[in-house]
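Worked Example 4.2. Read the sequence first, then its structure tokens.
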Amino acid sequence: MDVANILDPSSVRCEPQVSSKKHALDLLSQLLGHAGNVPAGEIADGLASRERLGSTGLGASVAMPHTKMPGIEHNVGAFLRLARAVDFDSPDGEPVDLLFGLLVPEGSTAGELQEIRELVKRLRDPELQRQLRASDNPQALYGVLTDKLNSRQAAHRGPSVRRPTGS
């Protein structure tokens, strides 16, 4: 997954005064609605319905609120970094300050769902979380997200091995 294909720079924000889970979900709904050309109210309803099934908190103060949305053709993302964490009913009991919101097409393929699982795995990376918490600049956060979350880049990363040259 190339995160730049689902996350627009204008869909990344830092919010200094979010006071609740509902407020955070409302802000995500606005960002996702703008990016996906979908009414924010429909998104808010979908996110709230999904949260009633169980928290989308991933642990370590990170959440990935998401909902299936009819009428969209591809995944649409938005990211919020909160100045102060809010209670999110996360399984680990920790409040959340990093939220990656996602709209998923209603008829998602197995491949698209696997990409989402990979995204969840990367969002759990402590180094990525540290980098996201180190900045309150949306452009810098977008750069970190698109650099660190891309599947093809992550697949090519690994230890550099220098091979001896032939003599």
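Now turn to a second chain, presented in exactly the same format:
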Amino acid sequence: MRSLSAAVGLGAWLLTACSDGMADNADEGVGAAESQAVLSSGLSLSGVASVSAMDPDGWVYIDSALSLRNPSGQAVHLNKGLSLFATKGGFAFWAGDAIADSGAFFGIGPDVPPFVTQSSYPLNWNWSVPIVHEIHRVQGTTSAGRPIEGTVSLPVTRTGYAVPEPSPYTGDLVAALQLPIEILKLTSGERWLGVVGQMVDMTNTDLFDFPVVTAQLRSSKGVTVTSVPVTPVEGNAPLWLFLATTAIPNGSVPATLEIGGTLRAASGVLSVTRRVPVTTAAPVALASPVSGRWYWHNGPGQAWFNTHLRFPEQRYAYDLVMFKTVQGSPSTYQGDPTVNTSYFAFGKPIRAALAGTVVRVIDDVPDNHGNLQDMNPGRNGSIILQHAGGVFTIYTHVRQNSATVRAGQTVSAGCLLAQVGNAGASTEPHLHFAAYKLDAAGRVTALPLAPTDLRSTSGLSLSGVPKSEVEYVSR
């Protein structure tokens, strides 16, 4: 979701009692770093961008400004713009074409005289994903009819944290990935790799053919370990989304992922190759936030795209629902599907997966009506806890007025937090559960989970990251 303003300024369950300590809240500052100029051809585009504030769930507020200089010696008319917001690894979200929308590039142009610098009005953005770069590109034509362009990647800095790593946006075709690339040890025993990425056409002139994408895992000596099947997800130019998943062959030690891509564009065939390191994930050991039989849905181990994978900070999250047999078939409810109490998950207790401090409580969001599409996507009922080692857990769609804790309170593992509800961007009563930490740049990074109290439905104790979509039993 984007907001733009032209205004200036911008282990086992421990059913123990909850303790009652208070924690401090930290204020946010504003920092800035110079832009990273790339792909410039005649136009000089520059700027700065910084985080002005960040919510506990990672929602970032960004201030930025742009300048465009025309050193070509000829008047230039801007006719096309491209603005992207990229997370670590370059996985991006398109902010559209400001020139097409308003006739100017955020107040610059569309006509730029020779040897003149024009600046944008101050820009304010807020986004629910951990943005680390703004990428902007303008294309125009000189008075002599020559094509001309300029591109810039702005590192979005945050005071007190490292400057984001260099942007991968250094060519006309970019292989954007959700990082880090990690192998997960699943409860099924598989060593699982899931890669979420995009081919990004920076020229924004593709011929609407899905790019050809390949993925190879290679050893430290460059030997191919295995090819990773790639599934096109959707063709939404200029971002072409793909998913690559595989179980890693036993005994192999992948060191590098190589992504290759080709795309037909107006200027011809664009190509890119990108290599990134592969590591083995160290998941967070914790307890299940719910007890009994629960279906762990929309999580790691699926060979198909799920709703969480669109958002890098949620790629290791799960949706937990309850199934029972109703009239001979599995169902999440019995009775009227528009009534929340018909759902087996609704009202079930949510407990702290680890000891920690309550960072935020939102339980005033009204619950949606069963599976009717009356959701409030702009605001979720949720509780966030902070734990040792900088780990956070988030429990989302909590039932309205069900929270039993407050911000600043310290809680023990197993402490009752709230009840499962249907509040916010929820299609039916369930618990969205995830863990994360802040990376070196101060942005949210998703963490895989390894509940220590899961059993199979046949009673077998399990270890590792829950393979989705599977029903498990927890204490």
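Notes for the reader: The helical segments are 98-102. The first helix runs from residue 98 to 102.
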